Each structure stands twice: as C-alpha cells, then as structure tokens.
C-alpha cells in the first residue's frame, strides 16, 4: 500500500451516498456531492463556512452550519478545504461569524461590516 501523499488514487477524498434519504442535504453544491464529511470536523473550530450562532437548552453557544456546503462541494475541493483548516485548528470560542465570511445577503441585511477579523481568519 502506498502512503496517501504518493498515491495517484484519490478515492480517499470522498464519495457520494446515493442511497441516503437526505441527499442532497445542502443546496448550492455544484460538483459531485461529497458525503465523506457528513458531520463536518470543523464544527468545534474556526472556519470560514457560513454559520449562525444559537444557544442550546443548556445555555451553550453552538454553530448552526446547515447553510454551509464547503465540506460537500466536490471531492478534491472539500478535501482540500478541510485539510487546510485542520492544519492549524483554532478552537471556536462562541463568537458570531466574522463579517469577512458572511454571505453577501446577510452582510447587506446587517449593515456595513465594522469588526476586525480574528487572527484565525487570516488563513
């Protein structure tokens, strides 16, 4: 078996579960739908994906990433996205999404962005 970094076979980067009753679970995917990251490994970390923040029944702030398709859009693209953000993971501290990564429609609705991006956003 070859190490992942020298193989030409990229099957480990993704798959599509055509039998899943929830497929497609995210809108906006333009390439093959990658089910490998069905549960995104970045849920507890900083990331640029569009998310909302809510408070759960225990009073903890959580991310709602249901509007994000970055970890599903294409086998190669989603693999590269996850690998990049896991190279130097920064634990998410419960803050709202940086205005730098807000979708344009949400930016317009919330007014001009005035917050400075976090250090973790400088990737």
In short:
By secondary structure, the protein is α+β, with helices and mostly antiparallel strands. The chain is built from two helices and two strands; from the N terminus they run ββαα.
Question: How would you explain this protein's 3D organization?
Answer:
By secondary structure, the protein is of the alpha+beta class. 16% of the residues lie in helices and 7% in strands. It is built from two helices and two strands. Strands 1-2 form a two-stranded antiparallel ribbon. The longest helix is centred in the middle third of the chain and has 13 residues.
Keywords:
single chain; 123 residues; alpha+beta; two-stranded antiparallel sheet; globular; disordered C terminus
Strand content: 5-15%
Average pLDDT for all residues: 82
Helix content: 10-25%
Stretches with pLDDT under 50, minimum 5 residues? 113-123
Element string (H = helix, E = strand): EEHH
Give the CA-based shape. globular
Q: Order of strands across the widest beta sheet?
A: 1-2
What distance separates the N and C termini?
Answer: 33 Å
Radius of gyration: 16 Å
Counted beta strands: 2
Summing up helix and strand content along with how strands pair, one would put the structural category as alpha+beta
Q: Number of helical runs?
A: 2
Biggest beta sheet attributes: 2 strands, antiparallel
């Amino acid at each position: 078996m070859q190490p992942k970094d020298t193989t030409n076979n990229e099957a480990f980067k993704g798959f599509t579960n055509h039998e899943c009753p929830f497929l497609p679970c995210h809108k906006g995917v333009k390439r093959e739908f990658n089910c490998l990251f069905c549960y995104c490994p970045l849920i507890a970390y900083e990331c640029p994906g569009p998310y909302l923040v809510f408070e759960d029944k225990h009073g903890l702030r959580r991310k709602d990433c249901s509007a994000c398709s970055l970890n599903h859009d294409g086998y190669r693209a989603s693999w590269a996205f996850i690998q990049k953000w896991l190279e130097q993971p920064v634990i998410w501290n419960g803050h709202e999404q940086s205005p730098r990564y807000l979708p344009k429609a949400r930016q317009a609705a919330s007014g001009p962005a005035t917050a400075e991006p976090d250090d973790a956003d400088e990737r």
